[in-house]
Design brief:
78% of the residues lie in helices and 0% in strands. It has 193 residues and is mostly helical. It is elongated, with a radius of gyration of 22 Å.
Length: 193
Amino acid sequence: SYLMLSYEKTRDWRNAAITGERLLEIRPENKSVKLRMVDYHYSLREYEKSLSYSNELESRKLRCKKGMVLFRLEQYDKAIKTLESLKTAEAYALMAKSYLKLNKHAKAVSCAFKSYKSGRDPEIILEFSDIYLDSDYKRAIHILKKLLDENPGDERVLERICRAYIGNFEAGIAITYAEDLLRVNEGNVTAYV
């Protein structure tokens, strides 16, 4: 419906969803409207409704969205099961976060690295290292060393590994990484701390 699309353009998810509901009353098997309803209700944070529509449409294309919905509903095991067959950076990242919520750290880190290797975006790994920088310096160091092996000279990784070694009371090693950091960016404040 043109009305639904006009609501999409203005990001008026509530009216888009209302229009979609009305269209589905007329044509209950309209898959394209149901597909849009998954997104509308997700945007409105109505995850149960979004899940209901995604269950009706079971398709590979929707699995990632369904995994996101299940994650938001704190159904982490179901989210993982839904995403397992997908081999995308986004699916691995979401599985990593789900495993982390379930306190399955080894699986979480494994999925985070699979996400990185699928998409080559180190953000998920950096996000994990930040979590561990608050509580488990040795685990943060382990993660950051692996990432540094694949991204030598990455300023963000070097900053975090310096902080991790300082937190782990290994100042000598922290200084070595701080020197590497200064070679990358001599104005980096973290290296001087």
